[in-house]
Amino acid sequence: MSRAQTTAGGVPQATPSDGGRSGPARAGGAETPGAADVRADSVSARTRQKAERTDRLLLEAARLFARHGFRGVSLEEIASAVGISGPALYRHFSNKQAILAAVLEDVSQRLVGGARLRVAAAPTPKEALEALVDFHADFALGETDRIRVHNRDLGTLDEDSSGAVRRAQREYVELWVDQLLALEPESTREQARLKVQAAIGLLNSTPHSVRHGDPAEVKPVLVRMTLAALMA
């Protein structure tokens, strides 16, 4: 049984008869202990699954674009490669242009992020430059599809998307330039940038190089050539 007490407004209000030991009443639909954690885990799992599917979409799109060209691939083909329907693909990307932009922006951001880490970890500019060359060689040998797409289809992007990619590319190049100038202070920034761009171009030739040998054997050759070109 409950006792009634009067509020300031004179309205009777029921009070619990357990001496105040009861916690807040659980109104209909209120969560039981742990329900919020279960719901958060479920949301986290769905978010993770969506991210994994997006990664697979970008991987397959890069493979198809590299093989057939941007204009030679349909949205349905990309969706089929991932095992989803065409309409389901629109939950991830609004159109094929958005997929291409995501592929190329992902490449640029991964390069910038990896380069920053290696420069920060290197004790000297020489070791930083060597780490950058090694990093890019690994990337180029492992991401031949994306390099082909970048070389051939960057000009297909709209101005906003291509601008974002090019800004990231410039930041990446300047990280290399900073290390080279520390080793060759007599060079101008323009001279150092020319060397860096040529060196990266050499490494990006790997979509053709790997056709002629095992990547594990190709890499040390490319690294030595690139470092020699940078220091020439």
Keywords, separated by commas or semicolons:
mainly alpha; Tetracycline Repressor, domain 2; two-stranded antiparallel sheet; 10 helices; disordered N terminus
Architecture overview:
Strand 1 and strand 2 (12-15) form a beta hairpin. The chain has a two-stranded antiparallel sheet with strand order 1-2. The longest helix is centred in the N-terminal third of the chain and has 34 residues, at 35-68. The protein is mostly helical. It starts with a strand and ends with a helix. The chain has a domain at 97-231: Tetracycline Repressor, domain 2. The protein has 10 helices and 2 strands; from the N terminus they run E-E-H-H-H-H-H-H-H-H-H-H. Mean pLDDT is 83; it is low at 1-26.
Mean pLDDT: 83
Fill in the CATH topology of one domain.
Tetracycline Repressor, domain 2
How much of the sequence lies in strands comes to: under 5%
CATH structural class of one domain: Mainly Alpha
Order of helices and strands: EEHHHHHHHHHH
Tell the overall outline. Answer: globular
The CATH H-level homologous superfamily of one domain: Tetracycline Repressor, domain 2
Class by alpha and beta content: mainly alpha
Terminal CA distance = 93 Å
Largest sheet: 2 strands, antiparallel
Helical segment count = 10
Give the tally of β-strands. 2
- What are the low-pLDDT stretches, counting only 5+ consecutive residues below 50? 1-26
The percentage helix is 55-70%
Radius of gyration: 28 Å
Arrangement of strands in the largest sheet: 1-2
